[in-house]
Design goal:
The chain has 668 residues and is an alpha/beta fold. The chain contains 22 helices and 17 strands. Strands 3, 4, 5, 12, 13, 14, 15, 16 and 17 form a 9-stranded mixed β-sheet that branches.
Length: 668
């Protein structure tokens, strides 16, 4: 065998590759947010490998010119993004028929990718970061171009495999197999930690997909609004005496963060009827939410902020207020708070996700690149002060909940051992509840979670039609959760939730998702709407294993296991979802979660009807089955009913209840 492999022979061996032309250097649009320099940490050997890793996408004739350019990016940005290969101008989701492709799924997934990188949607669009400070579509623009090329030639008999943003290739499959399989950030256990992951990312071999960024299913901040709305309503009902049919009129909610996920907070609070004050250090994020109408008042003056808040609270009128400043300063001043949380990106607290008290946003950004050790010290100091203020406020009757952003874990990592329930480690949770333990866990146990869809035509009328169809599928008298969801979808249009392409979020259980999906596919078949992409957040009953969030209410010891998300991913692949994804990290950070999701293209076919009945039910009920086995009462009740009524012949193993007195008599 001839081992003399030349670049000419390599180029001739590939039908799908980057072209020989070298794009011009881009002009960056002023005022578009840019990711900070997170520091260059590679040693010389790792740097050589990183440069070779980036250049291997590109024909040899350009290596001489691009090597110093990529080296400069690595030294000044901490990553090689390949800015030269970003397409010129804004990237936006177009109607699906405007894309090139050999199958509908190939075109549809291009819609989803471009929506994730829209200037109005993405947090740092030039660095391919959609949300969550580091959640990326892929690692660099060479990968973006190559993925698009593969999707343009993808057929119904092929599957594209994507490994942390790298398109590994097209492989023969069948129409009822996935068109795309994605993994992001998966690491061998010994190296499954933020430090080793960051080295891998700088070398260009791992990507942080967050949840729906790297899974290409993000639909803008709307994607978290419904969950935040449900969380706030349930917090008010649990702790503030709000009745089941009431809203949060006259209550004040205080939190922080106005980014891609956290930006949902003021909008959700307004829909729920509350006054909200949300702190944000980045003025550009405040301006984005103000322009979108998701905050109505903005001030850096705490006297003015609370004058507005208390007046609105007294009048019982919802009012979303953005405080341009640090949340710790806000809490040192705060009065008359009812509900308190935090949604800074604490899963990457030391990479810029948490801005310490005493630093401006600009100073934070500069220090990230110049003095990471000092930045880490200031983050720890800020988190400790933040915790002390929360503790003082809760002693005065304020209800605080960790909103799944690893805030309490970050406080623990900052040296505050008293935040742990057992005073030693985080295995038993924290002294303050996760929102999942108190508020959303029981809802997930029923199987409710953030179901979503995108109208691939881009036609707003298709969204109106699907909203109406979904509402008709919900019985508001079935459970209180169904009543909340009915009201949500009834009012979705007037609440102006769309940012990016025409999409909707709607919490539903297995039964509701199957019913709605079949209705939508029938509408596509009849020509009433264009094709539709179904999906969900990875934050779902069966989608994520994370002891700091989605499995925080699993108390049989398996909260640290990652079987559920892995089973969900494999089961969805076996049942023919159009896209399946499995990620490390999610909203709580590398090594703290394994999460997965899916996309299903509705083309009106009977084949897709069969996939809906099998895969959509499995996607939820696999998670309910695990929650039921942990002896969670709501999940046990759903599993018992499902065993007797489901049309698929499915059977779930249900645990026998053990008498606590028997165990106590043995152990004492």
């Amino acid at each position: 065998m001839d081992l003399m492999i030349t670049n000419q022979a390599i180029a001739e061996a590939m039908k799908v590759k980057l072209g020989p032309e070298l794009p011009a250097l881009p002009e960056f649009v002023p005022d578009i947010r840019r990711a900070p320099d997170r520091g260059y940490r590679l040693d010389p050997a790792q740097t050589r490998t990183a440069l070779k890793n980036a250049l291997r996408y590109i024909p040899e004739e350009h290596h001489q010119r691009l090597a110093p350019e990529f080296f400069q990016e690595l030294k000044t940005r901490g990553r090689i993004h390949g800015y030269r290969f970003r397409p010129a101008g804004p990237i936006q989701a177009r109607p699906v028929q405007d894309y090139r492709g050999r199958c509908l799924a190939g075109k549809a997934l291009q819609v989803m990718i471009d929506n994730n990188l829209d200037f109005e949607v993405a947090l740092y669009p030039y660095e391919l970061v959609t949300y969550g400070e580091t959640g990326s579509v892929c690692q660099n623009w060479m990968q973006y171009r190559l993925i698009k090329k593969y999707l343009e030639v993808l057929t119904e008999d092929q599957t594209l495999v994507v490994a942390s943003g790298h398109p590994l290739g097209l492989f023969r499959s069948a129409p009822d197999n996935p068109r795309v399989i994605i993994t992001n950030g998966l690491l061998v256990g010994l190296y499954d930690n933020p430090d080793d992951w960051e080295i891998a990312a700088q070398m260009g071999v791992s990507s942080y997909g967050q949840m729906t960024a790297g899974g290409w299913m993000y639909i803008g901040p709307q994607g978290i609004v419904h969950g935040t709305y449900n969380t706030l309503l349930n917090a008010g009902r649990l702790r503030c005496g709000i009745d089941a049919g009431g809203n949060l009129k006259g209550l004040l909610f205080v939190s922080s963060g106005l980014g891609g996920m956290s930006g949902a907070q003021p909008k959700a609070a307004e829909i729920a009827g509350a006054v909200s004050v949300v702190a944000e250090v980045d003025g550009s994020r405040i301006e984005t939410r103000r322009r979108q109408g998701w905050v109505r008042e903005v001030s850096a003056d705490l006297d003015r902020v609370f004058e507005l808040a208390l007046a609105a609270k007294k009048a019982g009128a919802p009012l979303p207020i953005a405080y341009h400043g640090n949340v710790v300063d806000l809490l040192e001043y705060a009065v008359a708070i009812d509900l308190l949380s935090d949604q800074t990106s604490c899963h990457v607290a030391y990479s810029g996700g948490y801005c310490p008290q005493g630093l401006t946003f600009e100073q934070r950004t500069a220090m990230l690149g110049s003095n990471r050790e000092r930045f880490r010290q200031l983050v720890d100091r800020g988190l400790r002060r933040h915790f002390e203020l929360i503790k003082a406020l809760t002693e005065r009757g304020v209800y605080f909940f960790d909103y799944g952003n690893a805030f309490l874990k970050a406080v623990f990592d900052a040296g505050v051992r008293e935040v742990a329930k057992n005073g030693r480690d985080a295995k038993d949770g924290f002294i303050f509840p996760s929102y999942f333990e108190d508020l959303m866990g029981p809802i997930f146990d029923y199987g409710y979670g953030p179901f979503r869809w995108v109208c691939l035509s881009g036609d707003p009328e298709d969204l109106v039609r699907t909203d109406r169809a979904a509402m008709a599928c919900i019985d508001p008298k079935r459970r209180p959760e169904d009543r909340d969801n009915y009201v949500w979808i009834r009012d979705a249009g007037k609440n102006r939730l769309v940012v990016g392409t025409q999409a909707r979020i709607l919490y539903q259980d297995a039964q509701g998702r199957v019913r709605i999906a079949l209705k939508f596919n029938d509408m596509v078949r009849r020509g009433e709407v264009g094709p539709i992409m179904l999906g969900r957040d990875h934050h779902d009953p069966g989608g994520t294993d994370s002891p700091f969030r989605e499995t925080a209410n699993i108390r049989d010891g398996s909260n640290v296991a990652a079987d559920m998300a892995t089973h969900c991913f494999a089961g969805n692949a076996a049942r023919g979802m159009s896209l399946v994804a499995l990620h490390n990290g999610g909203g709580t950070g590398i090594g703290k979660a394994v999460n997965g999701g899916f996309g299903l293209v509705l083309d009106g076919s009977l084949r897709v009807d069969d996939t809906i009945r099998s895969a959509m039910s499995w996607d939820v009920m696999g998670g309910v089955a695990r929650r039921n086995w942990a002896r969670n009462p709501n999940a046990m009740a759903v599993a018992m009913e499902y065993n007797g009524t489901n049309p698929n012949g499915d059977q779930i193993t249900i645990p026998f209840v053990v008498d606590d007195e028997l165990i106590d008599s043995l152990i004492g």
